[in-house]
Amino acid sequence: MSDGTGIEWTEATWNPTTGCDRMSAGCDNCYALALAKRLKAMGAAKYQNDGDPRTSGPGFGITAHASALAVPYRWTDPRLVFVNSMSDLFHAKVPIGFVRDVFAVIADTPQHTYQLLTKRSRRLRTFADRLDWPGNLWVGVSVEDQQSMHRIDDLRHVPAAVRFLSCEPLLGPLHGLDLTGIGWVIAGGESGPNHRPMDEAWVREIRDVCEDAGVPFFFKQWGGRTPKAHGRHLDGRVHDEMPLRVALAV
């Protein structure tokens, strides 16, 4: 079984690695960091490795789980799978050999479509030509503010079936957003007790750029104390656009 998910743009999660370290402002209120601490306290086996307290936390040390590589083979129905909701596969502490193992599982289960998201775009770009890219793998980068837009240029060099942006938590405007080579954009506000506000104008600008470029736009949430606090409507409508999922031969 999958880990389960409440994420609107996917159907299942798969965590072959767990743990991470703070990378940028978008990490400040990381839900995965807080969840890992609770899972460690509950005795969950995958979350007993502590991270550096300066950049990570209890239960959130980078750990590769070879046993988790078998999980997608157990799913009988095709599904949309978010890879590493509790980690970043392109963290420097994840061996490139294990990244190749993950990619091999993805290639070997073409009935599923995989969504892989990273903030470590430079390592993603560096290793792109050393990996075999399955046709059922979408790859995205987090772009939460103007300072992180350089990740988009790195993503353009990656030969993924779909390249996408996750502008969540959106912490500022993305003026000059260029969607050349990008096939999907997700945007959303931050949730939780320490959530930072999101300006409506920032979201509208992204939506308008997507419409002009013909890129599917998915608005996940306004954010607030809870993810559903202020709903998902933008100017009276819900934006649930996604790329086409192509079924590969099994």
Summarize the structure.
With 250 residues, the chain is an alpha/beta fold. It has one domain. The protein contains 5 helices and 11 strands.
Layout of strands and helices, then pairs:
Blueprint: E1 12-14, E2 17-18, H1 31-41, E3 63-64, E4 80-83, H2 96-108, E5 113-118, H3 121-127, E6 137-142, H4 150-155, E7 162-167, E8 184-188, H5 200-213, E9 217-221, E10 233-234, E11 237-238
Please provide a written account of the structure.
The protein is α/β, with parallel strands linked by helices and about 250 residues long. The chain has one domain (about 10-15, about 70-240). The protein has five helices and eleven strands; from the N terminus they run E-E-H-E-E-H-E-H-E-H-E-E-H-E-E-E. It has helices at about 30-40, 95-110, 120-125, 150-155, 200-215, and strands at about 10-15, 15-20, 65, 80-85, 115-120, 135-140, 160-165, 185-190, 215-220, 235, 235-240. The strands form three sheets. The protein has a seven-stranded parallel beta sheet. Strands 2-3 form a two-stranded antiparallel ribbon. Helix 2 links the parallel strand 4 (about 80-85) and strand 5 (about 115-120). The longest helix is centred in the C-terminal third of the chain and has 14 residues, at about 200-215. The model has no long low-confidence stretch (mean pLDDT about 95).
